């Protein structure tokens, strides 16, 4: 899934700043309007982070938490997906510092294992800090919410392209072996983070499911190292 809609994602990267300067009625937002919009986003973020497991998020709950009428909330967000995308935006802005920067410089063969481990742990740290939101994003994406899926793909595309570069491939060549390998790796790593950060998974699957982070992170880093070495050797 992660590699299949890259042209859609590329188009979605063109951000429309009008959504931040106007409400849905086309009225320009003054300071009060911007504060209200921020209050709605903060209320949604708080509900997502602290709601009991299995609790469904609703616009009515967000409106109550933000001390607003539903009609006022609808001036800023047309539906729950639009609100979630706004909540996701500042979180995804932190991805550069959390893990993307670790991929940008070439990894030497001698230090490859350490770099792979560093990236995987940085990515896990990002998931651990934003667990509820990222789980909600992926649940909605798996449920075929097209806008959320586009946001999910937009988040993984830079990782895939940077991994392709680490493998010695061309990140623009979407049909290359390196691109295919990077896509498969990201699917596996993301799913591993989903399992690792799901506190309720052991009770649903098996009581002895290990949630020690190394049980997941060490294999992820090792598989990443092996894949990069394999792709580099194939090009040598």
Structure description:
The chain starts with 5 loop residues before the first helix and ends with a helix. Mean pLDDT is 87; it is low at 1-18. It has two domains: 6-87, no CATH class; 89-235. Helix 3 (31-50) crosses helix 6, helix 7 (95-104) runs parallel beside helix 10 and helix 11 runs antiparallel to helix 13. The chain is an all-alpha fold and 236 residues long. The chain contains 13 helices and no strands.
Summary?
This protein has 236 residues and is mostly helical. The chain has helices at residues 6-12, 18-21, 31-50, 59-65, 70-73, 80-93, 95-104, 112-129, 131-142, 146-166, 177-196, 201-205, 213-235. It contains 13 helices and no strands.
Show the helix and strand layout.
Elements: H1 6-12, H2 18-21, H3 31-50, H4 59-65, H5 70-73, H6 80-93, H7 95-104, H8 112-129, H9 131-142, H10 146-166, H11 177-196, H12 201-205, H13 213-235
Helix pairs in contact: 1-10, 3-4, 3-6, 3-9, 6-10, 7-8, 7-10, 8-13, 9-10, 10-11, 11-13
Amino-to-carboxy terminus distance: 30 Å
List the helices and strands in order.
HHHHHHHHHHHHH
Structural class: mainly alpha
Mean pLDDT value: 87
Number of domains: 2
Question: Count of helical segments?
Answer: 13
Low-pLDDT segments:
1-18
Number of strands: 0
How large a portion of the residues is in β-strands, by DSSP E? under 5%
Q: Please summarize the sheet with the most strands.
A: none
Shape: elongated
Over all CA atoms, what is the radius of gyration?
20 Å
Q: What is the helix fraction of residues, given as a range?
A: 55-70%
């Amino acid at each position: 899934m992660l590699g299949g809609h890259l042209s859609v994602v590329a188009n979605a990267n063109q951000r429309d700043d009008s959504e931040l300067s106007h409400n849905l009625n086309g009225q320009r937002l003054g300071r009060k309007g911007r504060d209200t919009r921020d209050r709605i986003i903060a209320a949604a973020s708080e509900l997502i982070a602290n709601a009991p497991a299995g609790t469904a998020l609703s616009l009515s709950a967000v409106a109550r938490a933000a001390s607003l009428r539903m009609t006022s909330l609808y001036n800023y967000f047309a539906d729950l997906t639009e609100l979630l995308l706004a909540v996701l935006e500042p979180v995804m802005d932190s991805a550069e510092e959390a893990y993307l920067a670790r991929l940008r410089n070439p990894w030497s063969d001698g230090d490859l294992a350490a770099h792979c481990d560093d990236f995987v742990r940085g990515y896990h740290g990002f998931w651990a800090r934003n667990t509820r939101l990222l789980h909600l994003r992926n649940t909605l994406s798996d449920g075929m919410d097209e806008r959320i899926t586009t946001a999910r793909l937009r988040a993984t595309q830079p990782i895939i392209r940077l991994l392709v570069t680490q493998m010695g491939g061309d990140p623009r060549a979407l049909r290359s072996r390196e691109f295919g390998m990077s896509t498969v790796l990201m699917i596996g790593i993301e799913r591993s983070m989903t399992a690792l950060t799901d506190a309720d998974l052991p009770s649903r699957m098996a009581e002895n499911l290990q949630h020690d982070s190394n049980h997941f992170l060490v294999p992820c880093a090792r598989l990443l190292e092996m894949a990069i070495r394999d792709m580099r050797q194939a090009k040598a």
